[in-house]
Amino acid sequence: MMQRVLGLVLALCLATTAWVVFDNYADGVEVSPSASSSASVPDSAQQIAQGAYLARAGNCMSCHTVPGQVPFSGGRAIETPFGKVYASNLTPDDATGLGRWNAQHFWRALHHGRSYDGRLLAPAFPYNHTSLVTRADADALFAYFKSLAPVAQATPVAELRWPFGTQAAFAVWRSLYFKPARFTEQPQHSAEWNRGAYLVEGLGHCAACHGPRDDLGGSGALDDLSGGLIPVVNWYAPSLLSARETRLGDVPVQDTVRLLQTGHAPHAWVNGPMREVVQNSTQHLSVADLTAMATYLQARARAHVRADDVPRPTPRAPSLRASQRGAALYDDHCAVCHGKQGQGVAQAYPALAGNLAVQMAHTTNLVQTVMYGGFSVTTSAQPQPFGMPPFVLTLSDRDMADVLTHIRTQWGNAAGAVTEFDVARVREMQTR
Questions:
Q1: In order of start, what are the domains of the chain with their CATH numbers?
Q2: CA-based nearest residue to 142, from 209, 34, 58
Q3: pLDDT, average across residues 279-297
Q4: Predicted pLDDT of residue 119
Q5: What is the DSSP track for 359-396?
Q6: Residue 163, CB half-sphere, CA atoms under 13 Å: how many?
Q7: Looking at residues 89-97, what average pLDDT do you find?
Q8: What is the DSSP string of 324-359?
Q9: E strands within 134-265?
Q10: Is the pLDDT of residue 198 over 90?
Q11: Contacts of 88 (CB under 8 A, 6+ apart)
């Protein structure tokens, strides 16, 4: 009897292994030079220009460029909960970049998440989203990267804890979370809505940050924009569907376009990792594409009903002592820029009164901002943005908790208190 059970277990293990291998490697993409349409057809200037635009739309530069080094030469560390991976060199260097690749290799990487030699790519590369990219757009991207000057810069070896960096682990992860897909237009929606969906769900890979992830780093649907904490960097990417967190369903489309162009709009200012998205990507997109993205997001938000979007009971007021300390700290450190009544300064410092980011249930972003400060996004509209000083060495955890509680309960704001524990937790996460 025991032998029969062991035999069944062994058979099940072998069958599962065979299925995982087939699921990950049987993509049927022929990568020989004869199979590549670009092997003998020169790339046109128009195709290269389109590829450059698509690289902006996909924000490829942010990950594939070490700040201060040659664009797209790779080597930037991508922090994950399982260790570091390093973005690859996208210049056409034969030894360290895409020089030996053909269009089939590149298509396989985008659509199936496999590298030049067939290895499975780490899921830090959002191939679940780039899988939606059309073949024409993939070829244009490849033409653009081939047109760059080659840079000899080897990609450092990933520093992932065992067994997370093994091909076997990648294969299991992919079988659980990844399935190659193609973008399909929805005829019940307008061409503008479909273009926006293609950009948001595909190259824009917005759900990679604005969607939840589980303990294995798995994400939900490509259009899951319900918000989530970005691992390691510990910034909360707000829900793009919630009236309480972003209000995209209520504001005019042109306001969202302005936010993506400049980093600020009447209803919101970008902060944290989103600054780099605006700086390297969305500010460079056409008004037509930004309008399409905003139209899609607005429609999604209006169609979305969440229980937490209904009014909540007014939170309990802070103690008189904490309220007085918070008000005094605000006057000493914040009012000179953000105004006595939290009104802010147009084009310089965001208003705190009525600010949704100030009132979100997730307080991590607020604490990070007070602790470490930073500058607003650099754009062509504002090449020298205003900044905020860090208070990590100036204010104690209690000070930060009190001043943030003050901000969240004044001028019509109605959010819960920030505690010393909330501040200490963020401080600890940033020093790990």
A1: 25-177 (no CATH), 191-309 (1.10.760.10), 320-430 (1.10.760.10)
A2: 58
A3: 98
A4: 97
A5: H-S--HHHHHHHHH-EEPPP-SS-SS--EE---TTTS-
A6: 7
A7: 98
A8: HHHHHHHHHHTHHHH-TTS--BTTTB---TT-HHHH
A9: 159-160, 228-230, 235-237, 264-265
A10: yes
A11: 64, 74, 97, 155
Task: Work out the angle at residue 124's Cα, subtended by the Cα atoms of residues 120 and 130, and round it to the nearest 5 degrees.
Answer: 75
The Cα–Cα gap between 431 and 77 comes to: 18
CA angle 52, 55, 56 (to 5 degrees): 95
Distance CA 37, CA 48 (A): 15
Cis peptide leading into residue 163 (ω within 30°): yes
Q: How far apart are alpha carbons 119 and 53 in whole angstroms?
A: 28
Q: What is the pTM of this model?
A: 0.92
Residue 203 near residue 129, CB atoms below 8 Å: yes
Residue among 376, 375, 379, 366 at smallest CA distance from 407: 366
CA 330, CA 336: separation in Å to the nearest integer?
A: 9
pLDDT for 41 beyond 70 = no
Burial of 147 (0-12, 13-18, 19+ CB in 10 A): middle
Nearest to 382 by CA among 410, 345, 353: 345
Q: Which residues pair with 235 in a beta bridge?
A: 230
Q: What is the mean pLDDT of residues 69-79?
A: 97
pLDDT band at 90 (very low <50, low <70, confident <90, very high): very high
